[in-house]
Structure to design on (310 residues):
């Protein structure tokens, strides 16, 4: 697959926390519900485990499986949107979290890629990740997530 | 993907547009979150802009292009350290959009020559600087980056 037939989104943020706390915040429902529009992830967090991002009304927003897992350093998921047909038909993307400690903070890299040129899915996640990750950073550093990310959006 | 290389980064901060604009223009505040570097300008269109680097020779210089408090700020950005001077100036634009309890801050850094090394530097630098700015405005504490401080000591 050449680079030109891929779409990708990469975002880096630095958070004053530990890799273990950041890992927990990224994977445990009691944290994700606070910064990730009230969603939680249904997953056993083992290689090959099915992974589902659950909306608060019980719908499956996105689904895939665990491709690689190395807590608290690296997680790779396959990931497909499940409720927007135009995104679902683009097939599975690949999402990577990379957690690297640097002094009293952690560098978090989120990489989301799909083997398709100009993918609508990548456009959609490019709009979503910066807000979710900003809220995650606020939660870990101040104890409060961003207000706009505490509820599932009304129009979805 | 556009043909012209550029860097765009969006971050959301629980603060007012005025607080963010002030942090992007105030010398003393900048020195706290910008890993010791310090902004210098009177922020009038056409005036000189400088970022005084704490750990390197050769400040970043430029010209103020646009000042529209608290929504928009733009300046040219010319690096002089590490032999980057010959690349000439690029352009930095900040857009600040208030949204209820937060602001959406977008930085667009563009007008790079093909194969720009400055683009590589700033792609590493802006996420740290803006993460630290967010930390300062929300928690009162900035971030410390060992790799930045060590690299610059060399």
């Amino acid at each position: 697959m050449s680079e030109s037939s891929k779409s990708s989104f990469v975002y880096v943020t630095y958070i004053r926390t530990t890799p273990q706390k950041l890992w927990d915040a990224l994977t445990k429902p009691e944290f994700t519900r606070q910064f990730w529009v009230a969603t939680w992830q249904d997953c056993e967090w083992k290689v090959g485990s099915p992974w589902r991002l659950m909306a608060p009304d019980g719908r499956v927003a996105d689904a895939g499986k665990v491709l690689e897992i190395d807590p608290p350093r690296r997680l790779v998921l396959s990931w497909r949107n499940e409720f927007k047909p135009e995104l679902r038909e683009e097939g599975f993307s690949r999402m990577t979290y990379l957690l690297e400690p640097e002094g009293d903070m952690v560098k978090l890299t989120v990489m989301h890629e799909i083997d398709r040129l100009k993918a609508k899915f990548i456009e959609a996640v490019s709009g979503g990740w910066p807000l979710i990750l900003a809220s995650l950073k606020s939660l870990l550093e101040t104890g409060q997530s961003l207000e706009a990310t505490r509820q599932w959006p009304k129009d979805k | 993907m556009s043909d012209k290389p550029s860097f765009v980064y969006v971050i959301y901060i629980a603060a007012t547009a005025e607080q963010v604009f002030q942090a992007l223009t105030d010398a003393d505040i900048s020195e706290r979150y910008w890993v010791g570097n310090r902004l210098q300008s009177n922020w009038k269109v056409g005036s000189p802009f400088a970022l005084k680097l704490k750990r390197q020779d050769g400040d970043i210089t430029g010209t103020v292009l646009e000042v529209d408090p608290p929504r928009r700020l733009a300046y040219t950005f010319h690096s002089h350290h590490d032999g980057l001077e010959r690349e000439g100036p690029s352009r930095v634009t900040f857009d600040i959009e208030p949204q209820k309890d937060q602001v959406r801050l977008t930085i667009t850094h563009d007008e790079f020559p093909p194969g720009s090394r400055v683009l590589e530097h700033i792609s590493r630098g802006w996420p740290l600087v803006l993460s630290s700015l967010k930390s300062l405005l929300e928690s009162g504490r900035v971030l410390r980056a060992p790799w930045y401080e060590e690299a610059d000591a060399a």
The interface with chain A takes residues 9-14, 99-102, 127-128, 131-132, 134-135, 138-139, 141, 143-147 of chain B (CB under 8 Å). Chain B has four helices and seven strands. The beta strands of chain B are 7-13, 38-40, 48-52, 60-68, 72-77, 90-99, 102-110.
